[in-house]
Predict the 3D structure of the following.
Amino acid sequence: MPLRRLSHTLACLGLMALLAGPLGPLARAAEPDSPFLEDLTSPELQARIDAGTRTVLIPIGGTEQSGPQMALGKHNVRVHVLAGQIARRVGHTVVAPVLAYVPEGPIHPPAGHMRFAGTISIPESAFEALLEGTARSLRQHGFHDVFFLGDHGGYRKNLERVAERLNQAWARDGGPPARVHALSEYYRVTQTAYVAELKQRGFSPAEIGEHAGLADTSLMLATDPALVRTDTLASPAARDRARGVTGDPRRASVALGQVGVQQIVETSAAAIQAAVKP
């Protein structure tokens, strides 16, 4: 191929890649009612605040193993999707970026999820500083109610501690009125009402599980099935405690996950609306 034609071809391919690459983000940013802060420009966000949007959700995930059947980003993707649904149901609510780095246990020697490749753990002090800095930033911009939504049960005490510390400090400092809420309902419903519903449908506690079992895997199938390796669900490894699994995901399904999603969204939205009611 002549050099000039090769250069032209490469230039065209580069232009096509340039045009194709941002289409996804552009499509999200173009959505006029997107609840996600990352989809908005600074003036667009300011306009919403000025118009009365004063509630913000801080979704908190975690990067950890979930056996051979679910991707390491399970918590991050799930809390992003559910926070968006909750924000839309509540109305006049914005969703901050997902916090993906959380305490997952000792690094050396490794314990808990840190025994498995890909899990990322940070010290509790760093995690609480991250929460505090995020909440303080959002208060500075005019939000009155800041909600922590934790998709992982291991750091609930950290969310509660930071919320209490900030609320005490903000009550004294004379700054803009604002409150931080550690929304316990978001996680609690997955351990109570959702489990109860699955038991009513004939599933045993051993099958429902606590981590990467039927309940956990079903929730992921209902929020982003691309992160579930469905071809591994029937393998012995997918229900092996030594592989990081507590439960049995073989009968996990989108339909069962949708039951939990509905409970999480409805319960969380009701709790938020009750908390911000004058």
In short: The beta strands are 55-60, 93-95, 145-150, 179-182. Confidence is low (pLDDT under 50) at residues 1-29. Residues 7 and 45 are 43 Å apart (CA to CA).
